[in-house]
């Protein structure tokens, strides 16, 4: 149930935020860690909402755009996370001053999440009175059994290939995001502020990429072609980023980061929507949930590999390895058949 899932995720985020409010004293670090853990667990319920909400509430010509805007919202939160803490919490103050800054930030976040939770509780509905499309109507009429859906998904060749390619792409993005400061500071010592801004640029460019890719999917309905093009462009973006790092001009790194973020993060809603197409009529929440779970595994492994390679062979070969992973993911994407089941159901209903 979309409403129940969203309420659980929102409540957990709100609860974790309030726990962190009371974790400011130095001897309460454990409480802050607990609050952050509650927020992290709650994120599992929220990450899967965009594709499911889009499929339940929007018609066939709007579903991809709606999904991309949902992903845009997630990325907006990440972007605010890059900007807000440095603005609110001074790094050079005394311990009491830093504690006061942290308390203010935690109260703001807790207040915002509380208002959001109340709004969701009062106004968020599970589904519209009538299905917005024939595909949504048919999907609602079918019984949903998680274990049966899981069995169908893991035996679906196209979905398994998409799982691997999606994991490689987003896992690579996680690795870069996690170790971006280390990579930037290798060539531009002391550029801590620039490293943070470059991270923000990657996320903001990705927000734009998410929306643009969603609009393209709704206009063309060419899911495989769009997925493959965005994936290949991610390889090009990563190559440009790799070979411009040592140019000596950090402004060039900003520009290459825009290209990298636009396509690599723009791939997120494209992957969600392609998965929904090749697995229909299985629930979008299940398909996206498995995608997100696999991404976490790929992200951890890729980040650890990237960190080890940075310390062993340097950033050039480390980044080229990531380029190789993306190229491999592009080849896997090319092997996925364009079996657009949701589109077929929609077209059959019109006939």
Predict the CATH topology of the largest domain: Growth Hormone, Chain: A
Share of residues in strands = under 5%
Helix fraction bin: over 70%
Report the principal-axis shape: globular
Number of helices: 14
Please trace the helix and strand order, writing H or E for each element.
Answer: HHHHHHHHHHHHHH
Residue-averaged pLDDT: 86
CATH class of the largest domain: Mainly Alpha
Return the structural class.
mainly alpha
CATH architecture label of the largest domain: Up-down Bundle
Number of strands: 0
Distance between the termini: 31 Å
What does this structure look like?
The chain has helices spanning 2-21, 29-47, 49-57, 63-88, 95-123, 134-141, 146-154, 157-187, 192-220, 223-244, 250-279, 284-312, 315-334, 341-350. With 351 residues, the chain is an all-alpha fold. The chain folds into 2 domains: 1-47 and 89-132; 50-72 and 133-350, Growth Hormone, Chain: A (Up-down Bundle).
Question: What is this structure, in a nutshell?
Answer:
The protein is an all-alpha fold and 351 residues long. It has 14 helices and no strands.
Please describe the structure with a list of short key phrases separated by commas or semicolons.
Growth Hormone, Chain: A; 14 helices; MFS_trans_sf; MFS_dom; transmembrane helix; transmembrane; MFS
């Amino acid at each position: 149930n979309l409403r129940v899932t969203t309420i659980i995720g929102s409540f957990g985020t709100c609860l974790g935020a309030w726990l962190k409010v009371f974790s400011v004293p130095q001897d309460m670090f454990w409480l802050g860690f607990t609050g952050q853990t509650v927020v992290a667990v709650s994120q599992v319920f929220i990450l899967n909402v965009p594709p499911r909400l889009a499929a339940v509430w929007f018609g066939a010509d709007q579903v991809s755009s709606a999904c991309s805007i949902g992903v845009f919202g997630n990325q907006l939160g990440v972007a605010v996370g890059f900007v807000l803490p440095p603005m609110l919490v001074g790094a050079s103050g005394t311990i009491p001053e830093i504690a006061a800054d942290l308390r203010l930030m935690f109260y703001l976040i807790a207040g915002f999440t509380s208002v959001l939770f109340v709004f969701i509780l009062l106004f968020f509905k599970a589904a519209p009175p009538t299905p917005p499309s024939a595909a949504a109507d048919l999907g609602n009429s079918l019984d949903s059994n998680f274990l049966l859906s899981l069995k169908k998904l893991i035996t679906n060749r196209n979905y398994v290939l998409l799982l691997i390619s999606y994991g490689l792409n987003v896992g690579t993005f996680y690795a870069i995001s996690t170790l971006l400061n280390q990579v930037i500071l290798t060539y531009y010592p002391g550029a801590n502020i620039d490293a943070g801004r470059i991270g923000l640029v990657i996320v903001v460019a990705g927000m734009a990429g998410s929306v643009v890719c969603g609009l393209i999917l709704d206009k063309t309905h060419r899911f495989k072609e769009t997925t493959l093009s965005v994936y290949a462009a991610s390889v090009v973006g990563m190559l440009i980023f790799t070979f411009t790092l040592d140019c000596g001009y950090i402004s060039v790194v900003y520009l290459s980061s825009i290209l990298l973020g636009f396509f690599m993060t723009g791939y997120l809603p494209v992957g969600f929507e392609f998965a929904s197409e090749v697995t229909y009529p299985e629930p979008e929440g299940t398909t996206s949930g498995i995608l997100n779970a696999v991404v976490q595994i790929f992200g951890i492994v890729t980040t650890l590999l990237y960190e080890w390679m940075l310390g062993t062979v340097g950033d050039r070969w480390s980044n080229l390895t990531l380029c190789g992973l993306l190229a491999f993911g592009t080849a896997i994407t090319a092997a996925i058949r364009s079996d657009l089941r949701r589109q077929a159901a929609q077209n059959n209903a019109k006939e």
